[in-house]
Structures are given as structure tokens and as C-alpha cells.
Amino acid sequence: MPTETRTTCPYCGVGCGVIAKVEDDGRVSVKGDPDHPANFGRLCSKGSALAETLDMEGRVLAPMVSGRPASWNNALDLVAERFSSAIRDHGPDSVAFYLSGQLLTEDYYVANKLMKGFIGSANIDTNSRLCMASSVAGHKRAFGSDTVPGTYEDLELADLVVLVGSNMAWCHPVLYQRLAAAKANRPQMKVVVIDPRRTATCDLADLHLAVRGNADVALFNGLLHHLAQEGHVDEAYVAQHTTGFADALMACQHASLAELAEATGISTLQLRLFFQWFAKTRKVVTCYSQGVNQSSVGTDKVNAIINCHLATGRIGKPGSGPFSLTGQPNAMGGREVGGLSNMLAAHMDIANDADRDRVQRFWASPAIALKPGLKAVELFEAVKAGKIKALWIMSTNPVVSMPNADVVKAAIETCPFVVVSDMYGSTDTARLAHVLLPSAGWGEKSGTVTNSERRISRQRPFLAAPAEAQADWWQMAQVGCRMGFGAGFAYQNASEIFQEHAALSAFENDGNRDFDIGAHAALERQEYDALEPFQWPQRAGSKPDETRFFANGRFYHPDGRARFVPVQAILDHRPSTEFPLILNTGRIRDQWHTMTRTGKSARLSSHMAEPFAEISPSDARQFDLEDADLVELTGTTGARCIVRALITDRQAPGSVFAPMHWNDSNSARARVDALVSNERDPISGQPALKNAAITMKKVEAS
Ligand code: SF4
After folding, report:
1. Residue 573 has pLDDT above 60, yes or no
2. Rg of the Cα trace of the chain?
3. Ligand 1: which residue has its CA nearest to atom 2?
4. Which terminal residue of the chain, N or C, has fewer Cβ atoms less than 10 Å from its own Cβ?
5. Which of 12, 50, 604 has most ligand 1 atoms within 8 Å of CB, for mutation?
6. Coiled coil: which residue ranges (predicted)?
7. How far is the CA of 38 from the centre of ligand 1 (A)?
8. How far apart (Å, rounded) are the C-alpha atoms in residues 85 and 88?
9. Interface pTM (ipTM) of the complex?
10. Percent share of the chain, pLDDT over 90
11. Could you tell me the distance, in angstroms and rounded to a whole number, from the CA of residue 37 to the centre of ligand 1?
């Protein structure tokens, strides 16, 4: 009898429900889950091709130590012994974990508990630092908490949807489908796309503002100034629910529309139109994604956007609000359990004494981390400097995806002890492991993920994990036990971890923290298995319809008020003579991250078959390039990469777009992120992956 399993797509932050069907002969097919509130049955090209990526080629089937198969016992003993000896000889900050938004919340929870609560270091960061850390920092500055107030339905209810730095059509395709369907039914709805590139998302736009890279702060400061000048500020809301408006307005440095046009690259006509639409539309949702976050001024960009929503009181209401879209399937779930090195579990702060005390008592922890740990770029800098003696990388491929990727690779090569947990043994990172641990993958493991609208959904297994592959949480719990922390890590299944996570979220939480799923703290295993998607918070005894954040105008700062954050518009990355172009790295429609899974599907790979760079016609002329030439891109890091030139007027002069997916395994010298320097946002630590200075030259046929 064929069996059907309801689960969740493992790719982007939309978090679509999937029904996987396994036939009697083992063949798997997938379709969208019509009852899942994220997608109502829709799937994009990547989700539809999930069944094509489930073959066993490249899977790690047994633990490997120094390239040779080993038993789990021996491998885990070795990991525990090497981490323990590094801690004994060099202190707890000499070890580090680097995690992934691909991990399930239960994996993330155990990793954070082990590192922050038992090892006593906060050197645990994640590739989600590359994805949404600036939004987290912006939320905390404005709201006093990392709270995403928006829901997908808000996009459908809004009369104006502003998409900033978000190629939603390719990067959140099902949400884009929902938006397109809503727009088709609601003639009054307008969509504004703010992006230096004319992306596929612009097909839906009533107005495309081709903003210069990093000029978003100038644009939204200009909007705030306009709102104040033209009498569109909600004075009562600002007075009752916020502080800091005057300072934020002062920071807008009044510029004429012509000066603003010069700074942003947007015509005065378009600026005026956008400002008027925003000012006069009551229901406005502003969505933002990597074009905002992946910047040296990412946090300021987030706050410049939020400032405009606070000024108009357009937050906490249906069809209104700022809305950060997460890139990865579980970037949000990682945040809930303290997946970033400056956070503790359940949206508590390492830097807060009361929070540390609360978590330590709950965990009965012997050595809670006392200070924030290293953020992703700093973490690999510490590896390079020889300060990290033992490193555990899980479910991610930093040798390809980190900025300055060549240096990251060299750093990992010099680290005395590297553990990699992954499904595949041939990734650029897995090849550097001293110990390679076989992880269960999508369709094999059990747990939860949280999507961009705070909706927690189950990932359920429908296939047996191959050979000796095991869940990531199990691997860490086993190492925790072997390091002498047994009582805290005696989990039998993912359900027990979820229960503990839910109980911690409610522990001594009388409404002073946003994240609370206490309603699920006593979930039985069968209830966990049957758990329907739900949005947090869901406090003990609360109903799902009580979940709209900020509807009562109260925020999580001690005085209950939101903060306007004064942000200065600084235009950085002025091109130099040596590196006259700005590289904007990004994603394409049919690939996911470093292609370890999507690269298996011939159908997906046929969309764009080789690495390329989009170059404007004027830059092509200047650099003597023709369409389909091979072009060598060189970054300030000294790294080079060779890709195919794609000449297109979608690309603004002075900038080059190149996808980050290709890697050494499938295309030599195409690791684009190697060109990007370690420059990062000083507040969030998020690297500026969309603003790297480069130059380029044609590769002459030899
Ligand atoms: Fe998966 Fe995202 Fe596509 Fe949905 S939109 S099917 S979550 S990749």
C-alpha cells in the first residue's frame, strides 16, 4: 500500500507543506499540501523536484575518521575526547560549532544547550548569520525583541506591498504566487520593487525603483522626511507607543528631492510617486530580504524601514507592517533556540544576567556562557588565527558560502580538529574533515522548522535513513554524554527535545518575552507526531487567534514603547580605479545554496546550467565583452573566478550580479563568495555579500 506523509519543504523560508508519497516499489512522489497554511497546495520548481534529489549518490554511509570508516562508538569517543582536551588545555572558547538554517529546531536546541550551557562558551554561530542577522538586530533595536510581526496573509490584505532587496519571484516563489494571485483579485493593490536589478519580481511591479546599492537608508530617510513634511505622521500613535521620533527625523538630513535622486539613483518623478503612495495608503506591508540584510549597513536599513512604519502606526494591524523574509527553511527556528552566538534559547540574551540565570537553572547547567561568542566571520578568523582547536560544522558548506571563502578554506585546513556532520561526503567542506559523521537528511529525520511568518511545522520521516546515518541532535547528544554531561542529553527522540524547548519558552515568562510556545510543553509523542502547523506565540491556554504582535501598541522594551532609531545615510563602496564594479551575489530560481541537493535534478540544473555573471551593456562595452564570453572576476580578496558573461539591461551599469551556488566540486574556479571581503555590518556581524568591489576581464581563448 503506498503511504503518504505530510511534511515541510527543506528549502526556503516560505516553509511550504509537502505530501510525500512512497509507492510499494520505493518510488517517491511529492505534491503540495492543500491544507498547509503557508502554501495551500502550491509548490515551486525546487519543491516539486524534491523527489528527484533523494538518490543515494554521494551519501556518507558510516562515520569516517581520517578518511577511513569507523564505528559510531569510536568516532563519537574521539570527538568527545578532542573537544574535552581542547577545553581542558585552552579553555572553553577554544572550541566552536558552526551550524545551519537547514538544521531542525531540535538539532539547533541540543547544539546550543551543549555549547552555551555545558561547555560554557558561546562560540556557536550559523550560516543564518549570512541570511538575516541584520533583521534580528534591527528588530531588537526597534521592538526590544526579535519579533517578526507580519504574516503571509498581510501581503494579501495590503493595498501597497513594498519589496526591498527581495527577488521574491525566485527566492520565495510560493509567497510570490500568493501575492500575484491577490493582486489579480484586488485592482487597488500596488506593488513597488526596490532593487538595483530588474529581477523577475519586477514583472509584478507597478513601480520599480532601481536604488543604488546601500542607498536604501537614504531612500527611507527621505520617505520619513516626506511623511513628516506632508503631515502623514500618526502623531497619536507616535506619542503613545514610541520614543525617539524627533532624533530619527533629525538624522534624515533634509535633502532636496533632486539631491535624494542623485544619492539613490532614482528619478525625482519615481521618488515622488513612491512617497505619495506610501503616505496615502493605509494598508502597507514592506517586505525585505537579503538585499537589505547582506550589507555593511544592513541593520540601519532595517531600522530605516521600521521607522517609516512606526511613524504611520502601520504595524500590528492586518495588512500592515514591516516584514523580514527569512532565506532558509529554519532560520527562524534557529533564532528561537539561540542559534546566533549573541543569543540564548527562547529569545533570551546572553548579555542579560537574569536571562542567563533563568536558562542556567532550567538546564541545571554547570557552566553557562558568560558573554556573546564569535559571529560567523569572526569565528573563521579565529580559526585562521589558531585560536580554535576543535571545530564542528553541521549541515553547511562554508568553504563555498562564506565571504572570503578561499581564506576560510585555508583556515579550516589548518584547524587541528575538524568534525563535519553532513549527508554528503564530497562537499568542499566535508573533504576537509578529520571526522565525517553521516547525517540523516530530509525525508529521513523528524523535527520542526519555523518559517518566515513564525509558523512551526513538522518535518516528518517517510524513508529509512541509509546505513548508519543519524539525526544531528543524536550525534550532539551522544557527544554531550561522552563529555560527562549525561543527564542533560539523555534524549530518546525529537519529541522530548521539542517538549523541553517549549517548556523553556514558558519558564518564568509572564509575557515579558515574545517567544512562548508553552501550550506545547506537555505534548505526548503521538501529539508531536500529529502536530499541525501553528504560529507562535502560543502560550499555555491561549488560542491561535490571539497571536498578532503589537496590536495593542505594546512592545518589548521595558517601557513598552517601540524605538525610532536614528540612522545616517552613508553611501559606501564608492568604486575605486582598481576595482570599479560592485558585485552583487545572490540566488537563481532553481538552485539551493551550494547545490548539494538541487544539483542532483537534471530538470533544475537545466534552468541555468553553468555559473554566470550578469553585466550591463555599457560595462560590457567598457570591458570589451560580448555575450557568452568567459569572464574572470577578481575581488579585493585577491580571489578570482571564471564565469560566463550574460549581457543584459536588467543589470545597472557599474554592478555585476553573480549567483553563489557553484563550487569546486562542480565547476573549478567558480566560488563567487571567495571574491567578497570580510566587511560586515558592525552591529549584526552580517557580511556585505551584495556589495563587494571587483574588477573583471575577458578570458582570451588560448
Ligand atoms: Fe520549498 Fe520555498 Fe518553493 Fe515552498 S517556495 S516549495 S518552501 S522552495
Report:
1. no
2. 24
3. 12
4. C
5. 12
6. none
7. 10
8. 5
9. 1.00
10. 85
11. 13
Q: Which atom of ligand 1 is nearest to the CA of 44?
A: 3
The answer to whether the beta carbons of residues 450 and 458 sit under 8 Å apart is: no
**Do 600 and 674 touch, CB atoms closer than 8 A?**
no
What number of other Cβ atoms are within 10 A of residue 558's Cβ? 8
Q: State the DSSP code for 123.
A: -
Residue type for 535, please?
A: Q
Average pLDDT over residues 48-77: 95
Residue 414 to residue 465: CA distance in whole angstroms: 32
Cell readout for 175 is 509567497
Cα 223 to Cα 219: distance, rounded to the nearest angstrom = 6
Q: Record the pTM.
A: 0.95
Decide: 390 and 407 in contact? Cβ < 8 Å: no
Ligand 1 atom nearest residue 14's Cα: 7
Among 43, 50, 289, 607, residue to substitute to test ligand 1 (most atoms within 8 Å of Cβ): 43
- Residue position matching grid coordinates 545616517: 568
Task: Give phi and psi for 624, each to the nearest 5.
Answer: 60, 50
Give the number of the atom of ligand 1 that is nearest the alpha carbon of residue 592. Answer: 8
Q: Which residues pair with 418 in a beta bridge?
A: 391
pLDDT of residue 572: 54
Identify the residue whose cell numbers are 539523555: 490
Q: Is the dihedral of CA 465, 466, 471, 477 positive or negative?
A: positive
Cβ distance 296 to 69 under 8 Å? no
What is the whole-number distance in angstroms between the Cα of residue 73 and the centre of ligand 1?
37
Domain annotation for the chain: domains and CATH numbers: 3-53 (3.30.200.210), 64-128+330-490 (3.40.50.740), 133-325 (3.40.228.10), 581-698 (2.40.40.20)
Supply 328's cell numbers: 532558509
pLDDT at 67 over 90: yes
Q: Are 96 and 404 in contact (CB under 8 A)?
A: no
Give the closest residue (by CA) to ligand 1 atom 3.
44
What is the C-alpha to C-alpha distance for residues 103 and 3, in angstroms, rounded to an integer?
25
3-state secondary structure of 108: helix
**Alpha-carbon gap, residue 220 to 278, rounded angstroms:** 11
